[in-house]
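subagent[fold] <- orchestrator: predict structure for attached chain, return tokens only, no commentary.
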Amino acid sequence: MTATHEEFRQRVREFLAANAVARTEPPLEWTEEMQVAGCRRFHGALSDAGLGGITYPVEYGGQGLDKGYLEVYTQELSNYRVPLVPAAISHGMCLPVINDFGTPEQREHYQARIIRCDDIWCQMFSEPGAGSDVASLSTRAVRDGDEWVINGQKVWTSGAHYCDYGLVVVRTDPTQPKHRGLSMFIVDLSLPGVDIRPLRQPTGGSNFNEVYLTDVRVGHDCLVGGEGEGWNVAVAMLMYERFAIGASGSQAMTGRTGIAQLIEEAQRRGRSSDPVIRDALAGLYIRERIQTFIGMRIREAAEAGRSPGAEASIAKLNTAMLARQAADLGIAIAGLQGQAWYCTDKDGSQWANGVVSSPGMGIAGGTNEVQRNIIGERVLGLPKEPDPYKGQPWEAVPRS
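subagent[fold] -> orchestrator:
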């Protein structure tokens, strides 16, 4: 680290000490509404302090610094509890896509507001008939003068109920093969015809939504990446998602911060001397360390100007397996108290929720099976699965 990096580290420490809660302090009980409001406040203060959008251009609301500064910020942030989840997709997927594929006008209009969290964004890919095979989606956009009219349904849209904008992938040319006839649009979620319906999960929460789009009109200037380029933009966006998930580790599903907290829980419950628990903790530690090294490789590739490609799938697959392993270990350490707890125990449900939620990590950002296919084809050089409809127009392919 250079002296400049260390000066930056001190600025970050001072900001976090004044605007965040240290991990040594008890966690706050926040509702989703409180988290969203807290997320907006934190990112607004971050930008006001000259720390928002560290690697993004200054003219679009960022700081124009290299990734070394982002690494410093991330290291210091790990010591604090901050309500960042509401903007995870907005900052981790939508912001880099607008930065990479947006027009200068789009970047000027939207980017600073995303960085500040004045606007929170979501992504709308999956449909009832297009999950793992996103390219088979059927939501349509038809050109009408300077506007496009969108009709269709999206599902499993994280955070749509509190978001301001969404990036939606739609079909603009059904005469083309499924990967070629797609386009991506910016959609203001307050527009007439946008109907957001929360989906109830086994945990009792409603983080996901169905989004119905009925005659939703968006301007041609809302097109991202050009007409017919939606698949290329979507692939980049999925790569960002897989990298973001891959960097999250076991805490993505346990609600904790990983191996250190599981060790702490084992000690608190008197299970740290159990040889089976100790062996499981060691296995989880090894997998987390591997995940760290995968992340380092991806960051080095990005810094060298190379697309991480299939490495993001390796990171995402490992994270899904890691989350399941951590959730199972957490419930094993908690024992019966992880399945039934006193209503006065504020953290009593976390281990059960982890077990119920962890399989979802094998779906988000592309299923484990999809990731294995990508790794098999692009890393191991295995042949692709047969596709009898390859190259045929989307409208000619049978669908249920």
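orchestrator: received. Logging for downstream: DSSP finds twelve helices and ten strands in the chain. Residues 247-378 form a domain with the Butyryl-CoA Dehydrogenase, subunit A; domain 3 fold (CATH 1.20.140.10).
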